[in-house]
Amino acid sequence: MNEMQKNLNLPKIALGTWAWGGDTTSNKVFGNSLTAKDLKPIFDKGMELGLNLWDTAAVYNNGASEQVLGEFVKDIGREKVILSTKFTPQIADGTDKAVENMFEGSIKRLNSADIDIYWIHNNADVEKWTKAIIPLAKSGKIKYIGVSNHNLAEIKQANEILKAEGLKISAVQNHYSLLDRTSETAGIIDYCNENGITFFSYMVLEQGALSGKYDTQHPFPENSERASVYNHKLDKLENLINGMHEVAQKHDLDVAQVASAWAIAKGTVPIIGATKVKHIEDAKKASTVTLSDEEVAYLDLLGDKTEVNTTREWEQNM
What we know:
By secondary structure, this protein is α/β, with parallel strands linked by helices. It has one domain (3-208, 259-290): TIM Barrel, CATH 3.20.20. The chain has helices at 3-8, 36-48, 64-76, 98-110, 126-138, 152-163, 182-185, 188-194, 225-230, 238-251, 255-265, 277-286, 293-306, and strands at 14-16, 53-55, 82-87, 115-120, 142-148, 169-175, 198-202, 269-273. Helix 2 runs parallel beside helix 12 (277-286), helix 10 (238-251) packs across helix 11 and helix 11 (255-265) crosses helix 12. The chain is globular. The two termini are 25 Å apart. Residues 25-30 have low confidence and may be disordered.
């Protein structure tokens, strides 16, 4: 357990709010629109079960995700939640204070004076945006700095820039699942472990493709981006899903919980999308299970054999 995990008392699983709020994007990722009324029971269940780390971003549904989460934070009290949000270079306002301006918008929506983990959302210009976050970090409004969607060289570059100012990277967040282990094979997870950096794995469930809920007979809804990305690959996932079922039965789990337990066994903190109360309950149960080394290796092998590439348009090959 590293410094950040101890100081923030991080749970084993983070809860993601990518799908929260009205989906205003032209190409809907999830094909739904979730309001505060829909999401309140989900938030309450997470808090009840001790899963109090909520991951969002200014860019998620144009701030609507932060807005909804902020309503709940206001009701329950800031001290009870761990907040994780992001600076996304692509929506920067073009001023010299772009990071501070986006941050101020986030904390206003989140009803908070500070943020526990503040991320540079992608590798758009590592030197520029890493340097730009330094004044904000020194102000004390950010407790820990993270970088997302950065490769190993970029993570090292950002860390060197920060170290020169007495700061450091405390967290890395990348796509990591049984279908995408590139952050592992590229040495990123090893680097994190060697340098006291917490690795957060997003898309552990591949937006539901590894939940056991979808197959060739039960594809993703046609009006969603998920359908275009995953439906034509579902047949290639059958052996992996069957293997996950095998492991699930040994531990009284379901397939989705196996994906999460696998990510924990790999030493990462999975971020699980929270759009149903069951997702919270699944996450909690997964956090209590320890898979054996043999089970992890078996799942790794099955994942590799699918030869399915799930790198998305905003990501780079690690």
